[in-house]
Design goal:
Helices cover 62% and strands 6% of the residues. The chain is mainly alpha-helical. The strands form 2 sheets. It has a two-stranded antiparallel sheet with strand order 1-2. Helix 1 packs across helix 3, helix 5 packs antiparallel against helix 6 and helix 9 runs antiparallel to helix 10. It starts with 26 loop residues before the first strand and ends with a helix. The relative contact order is 0.03. It comes from Melia azedarach. This is Pentatricopeptide repeat-containing protein.
Length: 308
Amino acid sequence: MLCLRYSLPLVIKRLEPIKISRSTRSVVVCAAKGPRPRYPRVWKTKRRIGTIAKSAKLVTCIKGLSNVKEEIYGALDSFIAWELEFPLITVKKALKTLENEKEWKRIIQVTKWMLSKGQGRTMGTYFTLLNALAEDGRLDEAEELWTKIFSDNLESTPRTFFDKMISIYYNRGMYEKMFEIFADMEELEIRPNVPIVSMMGDVFQKLGMLDKYRKLNKKYPPPKWEYRYIKGKRIRIQAKPKNELDVAAEGETEDEETNRNTNESSKETEANTNELIKAAEVNSHDLFDKAETNSNEVNISSEGYVSC
């Protein structure tokens, strides 16, 4: 039998050395496939603008406008037109800047615009709006906002809202509404802080409710210690007296009054001493004249006695 065998062709290939560049900038070495070149980027990222610069730009954009609602809302819409997401941090920083500059109308406009977009519906935003309404003199809108927040969040309303409303009513002399809010605080078992207790005590003293004033001080005595955060650590510090600033102011006024009294008393004493000196001089002159007349009379009488 014939057996045919095909011999495999001998392929001799020259092994060429592979040159691997040692520079790591242009070549990235992969784990399995070896080095591959890195191509340059077609586009470059521009310098990004931070939230602080954006908030400053937003504030300058708003300040030059009038108080027309359509104009302000249009400018704010055009400001965020090219944003992929709503710039909540930028708007919050702009509101903080406006609050420091006491631009209450602008704060109300920007906050209402943000809430109309469905953004920033937090307690901090509502508190900023409530404070701006109170400072701008819109008490009806502030009360409407307060009733809405209190009705929606009955048991979770923060204490700062109660404190703010009590201070608003205290500054305007609306004592009955103060008592209502304070009664709501006690019903919800919210402990008032020291300024609120002092305000309520002042109102009780003004209205002559001394029994309620004593009960208030007995129920909410001033704290002996207070806690402060210093360099991130919670440190207990001895609390200051309730009206230390008032006491200091009273001390200054008392010092001024004492200085005035001392000046007046010194002037009076000087005037009295001058009058006494003048009276003493007059008396001395009178006594000297009387002494001279007496001596003359004695001399005359002695001469007559001698002549006799």
